[in-house]
Specification:
Elements: H1 20-33, E1 38-40, H2 49-66, E2 69-75, H3 81-94, E3 103-109, E4 114-119, H4 129-145, H5 149-168, E5 186-189, H6 213-225, H7 238-246, H8 251-261, E6 269-272, E7 278-282, E8 295-300, E9 303-306, H9 308-314, E10 315-317, E11 323-325, E12 345-347, E13 353-355, E14 369-374, E15 385-391, H10 396-399, E16 408-412, E17 419-420, H11 424-433, E18 439-449, E19 452-454, E20 465-475
Parallel strand pairs: 1-2, 2-3
Antiparallel strand pairs: 3-4, 4-5, 6-7, 7-8, 8-9, 10-11, 12-13, 14-15, 16-17, 16-18, 18-19, 18-20
Amino acid sequence: MRRLFVIILLIMVLVSAGGCDRKKKSIQERAAARTNVIIDDANVLHADKKLMKMYQEYNENLLEEYDIDFRIVTTSSEEDINIFANKEFAGLQKESRSRSGKALLLVINTLQDKVRLEVSLALEPVFTDAFLSYIERKGFVPYFRENKIADGVYMATELVHDRAVEAAAGKEFVPPMASRSIGGGAKTKANIGIADPDAKKGAQVAAHAADTPMDVMERYLDVLRAHNKNPGLDIYTDATKAFFRKWTVTDINQDHEVHNITPCKARYETLYDVGDEHAVLAARPYDKYRTCSPYFFKKEENKWKLDIATMAQTLRFNAQMQLHFDMEKRLQGEGMYYAFAFDGYGFDGNGYPHRYKKDGKWEKYRWKYTCGGYYHPGDRKDDARCWIKYALPGGPADVRLGLEGLDKIYGFGEGANRKTNVTIDEFIDYLNSVPTGEVATVIIEHYYLDGREMHRFDDILRPGIEVRYETRQGVAP
């Protein structure tokens, strides 16, 4: 789903203090800070490496593809926000990264509870007053109302990026709302922490036992078009209802999702797991239709329901809205039950899916892996243990259990059925015995050195090497 993820931005805290020398230093620091895209003097944004990286991707794409220099300043200054913004914008234009004078500045004043967008003359034909008013009132102010200032800032960046893409394609901006002319940029009340009583209202939408996942998708599209923000809709899983109770949804979010789903509908096919408990609407091959998000469905009360909570956990999109996965969370919790829909695909370091060339020799191997043998001191020939010699990229051992070459198998099973120090034959028999659709549990032995993972085939531990055991779970193919 588009925009289900949260971006927290780069923090640059500038220290201000009394005295002539200190004031001079503060000015120098501020000038240096103009090379950064964020100056967070109000201390309302918090660092998160993963999310910051995603934000920076949008910002850099604006600069590289459209020569637009977009900056953010938060402040608690008592100075009039118009005067403050004009001064900051003048400094930005002098230090601009844009070669053609295309600059945008978003100023958020938490003391005055106001927000202002400044636009250079070179961008006024694209970022019209109507557009600026639209994204302020309908884009990020709804996030500010719920004290999610960083989320609102990211939404502003995403909308600016989308508008740049549309303008490059020759499209004019027609706001889907009444707009006022405000000239020379846009200023509005931020409404920080002032909850909107109508933010999560909407008519109930029922799910039915006879509905297919595509039927539910059609109802969901109606929900989006109607700007229905009721988090308790019957077409949602229980986890999704809880997710939406906490998540901020705006008209813009919903409009963009309709825009993204519509061209993908003809490509969607419904994939079911063997237990008929989970399903995925998928536009395959994933590496060709990366802008078509898969949609997850789970049966609850014998009805197919949208599992957007798991989608939000596992799916990510780059600045070009291309699908990839959060590789740390992809197989966590409910996510493991949707792994079946991605069999046959490998994932690169950034979580983008890629098809692998099928090799007939692998068809006889259920989990698509092979073992090598190693021994503990005193082991007999029959006691050989398994280290993963190869896990076929995109195969179930790789996709569902996350196994990779050189992993050392320590045990398997859970509770009373847990077994450790297992032999190759015991491990292979165990994986082959797990019924299709059931969860397999494998305990992997890893070696770490100085915080970095390393694999060894012997049991001689040198100083500085520590052993850890990790439990992996995946649904059997």
